[in-house]
Records
---
Amino acid sequence: MKNKLGPAMCLAKWQQTSLHLTTGHTNSCYHPPLHQIDASLLKNDPGALHNTPHKKAQRVLMLKDERPSECQYCWNMEDLGKMSDRHYRSGEPWAAEHYKEIVNGQSENPTPSYVEVNFNHACNLRCSYCSPQFSSSWMDEVARHGAYPTSKPHNDPAHFVGSRRPIPVREANPYVDAFWEWWPTLYPQLRHFRMTGGEPLMDRNTHRVLDYVIANPSPHLHLNVTSNFSVDEKLWQSYLSKVKTICDGRIEHFMQYVSLDGWGPQAEYMRHGLDFNLLWERVNQFLTEIPGYSSITFIVTMNNLSVTSLDALFSGILGLRKIYSKTYQRVWFDTPVLREPAWQSLQILPESYADQLEAIWAWMLNPCREQTESNPLHVFKDYEIARLDRDIAWMREGQQMDPQELSQRKADFYRFFSEHDRRRGTDFNLIFPEMSAWWKECEYHARNS
């Protein structure tokens, strides 16, 4: 597929969509910036949730072998000689089967086969890199305390107005209404459907989808839900019961995505409100109690606080594989890089932290060398190793950063997490003692900028 795509084509521009219905925004995957959906177009065509004028213009460029600027992340990876996400995504069956009709210009208003949807921003966590657009808990905090004192005030309540304002569940939402009008047309074409948030387990639309799937089995569907696995017990039991029913032969596969960026207290610090022990207990409960047709994928958002406990997390994942992966792989993980906010990026860390990641990368290779016919499911996959290698390459690009910009990002790191500790009763140096020298360096930049 890499060879067939040419210099600019990405099938995800046609066959994949991310819908943020809480604010009426969309993009084709998580790399390009979100853009506004024109609500007036939805009255006659709910499919305009996906086929926006902006996306159509980007598709025209790709058909001309021109690189859309909004896809710069993939172009950067390819210019470094790495596999990009457009290669991975376009090579998957849900996209690849549409290759001919797309390159021949026969797919002007496609019904996507891979859909991610965020119905609203209700969430019980305040993850360090999140925002009020995706977390009601974040919205409550900034309403009480205001913006964070970074160089450009972070999560300023004044920013989340107009089209950036999350539509509360108590108000009419034309984007959610259009989605449910589109759903009977969309559902039969879906190969992957993923619900994100916010926290999907807290949203009634999530449960409406689950009930619909129970009543309308789809043997080719991969149904996916992203969760922090830290909701209250009543919600958890209701959700688990419905997933058990769905996995009893109603779909091809259920993928449970679990958001986790580190291990133990460090994971809890990054994703404030997370109960790590409860999450790990529920991961084991899910893998034990759900019958066939199900797996778990950990979404490890690679930020500069992930580095020091990543080896513990990967060891835990490998342990789960040895326990639960018997006849097929039930435990997966992905390592997308965090680019915003800039002060939490891998790129601003010293070279020694890139060396730490390279040591983890080298350790991951060893189980693969030892792979035998008796444990092919209990090792790291080649593409998992390749993606970490890609992350390290991107991290090292930061060495070319303008010194003034790098100084500002370090200063903002200190400003943000100092305020984080003050507001939330946390202590960075207690949780990350191995980063004390880095903390002092960032403090220096904050004091002298």
---
Amino acid sequence: MTILGVVALPGVPPERLSSLAAVAEGAGLAELWLWEDCFYAGSVATAATMLAATSTLRVGIGVQPVPLRAVPLAAMELAALDRIAPGRLLAGLGHGVQEWMGQVGVRVESPLTLLREYTVALRALLAGEEVSTRGRYVQLDRVRLVWPPAGPLPLYLGTEGPRSLRLSGELADGTILPGGTTPDRVRAVRELIDEGRATAGRDDPHRLTVFAGPFPDGDAQFVADEVRALAAAGADAVVLLPMPAASGERAGPDHEAFVRFVAGAVRPLL
């Protein structure tokens, strides 16, 4: 059964996230996702807000740009969220939009090298290990979390390029693909991920999450058909993008209506 979720776009004001999360949980939605665009609300604060407002809803961060946070800080934040809401955090990492990374002074020469070093170190820290490393970008000296997650915390990589997708297969527990991804692209991505998994000798599950849309809340059969096509191509989870709010219109009510549409009209057709 394909997991069905919805994205809370960055334009949703932070003060509306608690009510949106409550609506999503009340409607029986499995997952509510957000992403960290510069210069909107930070993903840790917003994910914490939505987790605190709910008791069963899974909250996805898709994704945190790794140049913005030192690895120990990311580990401390993600571990704390997972301990507060065990099993409900879906943690996604990515290169970040390079223009924005340059704008804030954290752009690196090799984003792929940073993502590799960062992911390796973060996984080890979240596993409760003491980490020392002298990489090109990640340099740690006997760092260990006092409060690691109580259990395994899967890490997902949000990426598109062939080398990054192979890296995701090699190091991550799942991959996140952006809106506009077609079924043919899903199949091609699966092949690249599997190449990385083969390199690492991995045979554990690798979750493929596909953002789809944006979709207006109207034609439920059309949306359901799109979800089924992505699932048949290899998507394990499909996260639907609502239409952005019209100019001058508050984003919150649009999202709440879309959540109810997905849960009440689309899900029964799957």
---
Amino acid sequence: MPIKRYKPTTPGRRGASVLTHDAVGEQGLVKSLSGPLKSKAGRNNTGRITVRHKGSGAKRKLRILDFVSPIEDKKAKVIGIQYDPNRTAAIALLEYEDGKKAYTLAVKGLNVDDEIETSRTKGIDIKIGNRMCIKHIPAGILVSNIELEPNRSAKAVRSAGSSAVVLSQEAGFVSVKMPSSEIRKFRGDCLTTVGQVGNEEWSLVRHGKAGRMRHRGIRPTVRGKVMNPCDHPHGGGEGSNPIGLKHPKTPWGKPALGVPTRNAHKASDTLIVRRRKKKK
């Protein structure tokens, strides 16, 4: 998807760019694979804000993707590459041999009329778009759309342009280098897709104006220092004042910046071989 850059005809257009989505293959939304997407705007069931800076956004429908792949050991044909407003990557519309259809993430190099295969029980060809157990993939191959646990839906490496690298196998586990540079182990029965997630130019898009972020459902973020004392521990004072604390705090009064927040007893800690490299 090439990037289109606008001429600076208005202040909002100056420096703005968009991705041009090529309409390839079938573009109609499959009703059985879509549903309503209610806007929660960061509120809980009582209406209180639990996640800040969310709200408004363009109205859209949910595309139900096949992250579990229940149709096994069957070949599918790609009949369309479509735009999904709910994610950064494009999605591929598949049609299986028995006529059933499914959505999946479109990997780089996947085209209309390509045939892909999914299998949990056997090793299949190492081909772009094929989905198989990670234990059947040799070292050095780029993979994406990985299950953290077998039969529990793919949750890792799903954003546009992301990919992981298979490193080695040992005692039923496969070591994989994640996009964050973290090296972790996966069970050999976890499903993964061969190839890198497409639409890698997404990170180069410049929105140009605040309104485009509002269309995405993202509300403005301001510093705690410019808030009132009732809204943030850093707030209050006249003019430009220091925060008046020994160390910065979150809006809820907990220490911020440099304080570890990860759960010390998280189950997946034992599967992490090497932590990610922190940015300096």
---
Amino acid sequence: MTRSSLALSNLRAFVILIVLAFHSVLAYLGSLPAKQDLFDSPPYSWQAIPIVDSERWFGFDLFCAFQDVYLMTFMFFLSGLFVWPSLARKGSRTFLSDRFLRLGVPFVLAVCLLMPIAHYPVYLVSAVDPSWTAFWQHWRALPIWPSGPQWFLWELLVLNALAAAVFRYVPQAGELLARLAASAGERPGRYFLGLAAASAVAYVPLAVIFTPWEWTQFGPFGFQLSRPLHYGVYFFAGLGIGAYGIERGLLSSEGLLARRWAAWLAAAGGGFLLWIVPTALVMEDWGKTIPGLQIVAHFGWVISCATGCFFFAAVFLRFGARRSRIFDSLSESAYGMYLVHYVFVVWLQYLLLGFALPAIVKASIVFSLTLLLSWGATVAMCRFPLGARFLGTERRALAKAR
């Protein structure tokens, strides 16, 4: 395994830790309402934050705000890296079949089986009849089928299908994206500006029309109205870098991006301020007295997202190319952990509601137990052929992409 591949494998392990931490602290945000909305009451805000605890810490708000800016975008970018080599090796038909088994089937199983179990505690918070039968009646009466974090899977499947169509009908597009990525290793700043500009075109108009926070749901298919095109930009940026070769160019462990990680740290901090300051002013109604403040916040989000992605890539390329048995296992288990962790998060947050513990202590308990339980469950599932078939391992994907 090359140094870049090893760094990306360790980065995948780190990303799943951040996902688990993000969901683990949501119940303890300082900005949450005083009490939880009823299970049957629109707009069903518990889809975003299932459990609302009375213990709060504002530091979690800052942590989640930063993660919300870049994290899912980064996951789409990383997901695109190995798509073009896989298409070249398998062809579009076999690739799509594999993607359906890898993404589509787990999405259906997770939404139909795991999400009702994960959201049962939300119903129990205010339930008159706590039985599963009563919950199931209320669940079936909802106008939507909540999918939790599994929305990522169906959007990623759509983008993979689009990539397969491009490979089949416009094969030269991969070469074009690879050429755009070719100079990124020597001039990451210029590539950053191009990516941020494309992201702004994809994101800002939709953010103006729909606001940055608005979600919609059609059955189990939920998505944030301002971000689908933006996610597509980063997915195809990752596809282009993968088509050029992850061992060279932008993601070279010896490249300028890795060597200038400290500069990207400063850029990530500055980019976050460019977003959070105008956003905070808008939330305090300053947007009514300062023209264009909301637009400034939208462009700040674009910059913060790009700098956050570049910073974490740079740090792991510079320092993360070391073999670790723990990170190897985490990386291989990351996908399964993503599928199952939400059940453990919500149930643990619910079970801790009656304990008078500081928010930091509760969040630490939820994160630690969720990590152990979801990790252990994934390792156990992969011991069975069917589980290994659906979940796979990232180590194999990285090895094939060398």
